[in-house]
Amino acid sequence: MLGAYLPILVLVVIACLFGLGSVVFSSLIGQKKPSKVKLQPYECGCEPVGTARERFSIKFYLIAMLFILFDIEAVFLYPWAVLFKRLGTFGLIEMGVFIVILFVGYVYVWKKGALEWE
Amino acid sequence: METLILGLPVAYYIAMVAKVLVAFVFVLLTVAYATYAERKIIGHMQVRLGPMRTGWHGLLQPIADGVKLFFKEEIIPSEASKFAFLVAPLVALIPAFISFAVIPFGAPVSIGGYTVPMQIAAYYDQAGQQIFDINVGVLYILAMAGLGVYGIVLAGWSSNSKYSLLGGLRSAAQMVSYELAAGLAIVSVFMLSESLSLHKIVADQAGGIWNWYAFKQPLACVIFFICSIAEINRTPFDLPEAETELVSGFCTEYSSMKYAMFFMAEYANMVTVCAVTTTLFLGGWHGPFLPGWMWFIAKVYALIFLCMWIRATYPRYRYDQLMRLGWKVFLPLTLLNVVATGIVATLVK
Amino acid sequence: MESIFFLIVAAVAVLSSILVVTCKNPINSALSLVMTFFCLATLYVTLDAPFMAVTQVMVYAGAIMVLIVFVIMLLNIRVEAVKRGSHAVFAGGAIGLFLLFQTVWFLGRGTLSGATGTMDRAQVVKVGHIELIGKALFTDFLLPFEITSILLLAAIVGAVILAKRKI
Fold this sequence. Notes:
The complex is a heterotrimer. By secondary structure, chain B is mainly α.
């Protein structure tokens, strides 16, 4: 029934209004004395050196990829968990096969040292 | 026959607006006073007094903080990507404030012959004499938690400051890692409840403390709570903020209300996490003698106190330890727990 | 009432997907894409498919887009995007127009035909969307489900090989 989802929409609207309202209100009543030094990025009081948009470690990228893959595994687990008692032993075996295959991948990731942070 | 809008009576919509407003204001007040409680509790744990000057024992401190933040200067760094910089606090705030919509916080109340479930996104079916809620409630909360990462990544990236970028990145990697473990930990709860509807999960835990899923799934309960604390960047996992090394990380460049929004989002997330843990593992609003909503609030506040206690007790994790804990300890443990639950449940039957 | 709601959501979806391709800053494009995913999730909800909606938000908006945002930040693309060649614009425009024409043409032909399911809306709501999907997935489509795990395994190995310089 769609009516049950409506409150979420109402909450989104309220949260948006609250957030926008407080930001706009504070920027209206707050003081404004910008200066060149004040608008520089913070770097312990020194002149900023170089740009912040540096390339960063590929580690983060790998974590994001692994997250997607295991997240998809989790998405498959949810409907299975709901039905697991109705599916019986057969369901347990099929999900067991699924988990074991992915666990092989997990062991591979571990052995390759992709989870190490030096 | 009364008039129906989208298949539901007008009374439903009146009740819904009332529930939304009450819950929103309640969460907002809880967030405001959680900041006060945190300073006070940690103060006393460290044999200090905490805030004392604003009102009796500093009770007006959150209001003073709010007024101060409103009057602060709004700084937008000249190097920043403006649109993302302005949007990031909102992106952090909105998911934090909408995820409590599916949590049941009390026994259904009957007003003038019309039953109102104490759950925002739910309705009572008069014909079937049954409460219906969103039947993927838990996943809705997980999805919203997953969106919280954008606010932080955007804030870190758009500020164009080295500290912010490092804080934002660390935070993103930490949040996704622990979100995964938290998401897998609760699978074993669904195996017992055979449903993703929070109403059903709470109903399953009725009838005494021994029915709580915390006792049937202790490992899942502990892992879920720890992962949730890590996911919302609370101490001891507050690497992204790490005051001493990253000078507040992703929100280094933020000031005024925009800075306050990240804090509100963080505390609102803490309230949500405690409410979800209560609902999934601690019997939800069920309890003897007192009305349901009182039990619910008591349990949630007890967990919030636990969060603060943890903050006062433990030192911060190192980043490599943190990632190791998430990926090498919790992830395999949750999968093992799922398999073990499956085998035991099949054997018992 | 529902059709008005659909039109609003669809309009936002189209608008944000136009923004995806027109935004100068790749991060803003990525944000617009997240918005499009949200609108799609909302449309799934109106079609009584809440599990699809949540999965859409969890996997697409919550995971894949995080990766895309990471990649944008990793590659450090300059804000002023390189001006694209006119051939590419022409080819893209032609394909787009062709697809639009095709869609309009097929819709204009009248009723859609094809196999319909055995359940109607009320039954889907009653049994539960996630139960229905699970039942189909774990009984009728067992083999594709198991093959998915092989696919995920291949992707895991691929991700590690791509990311690690020394294997």
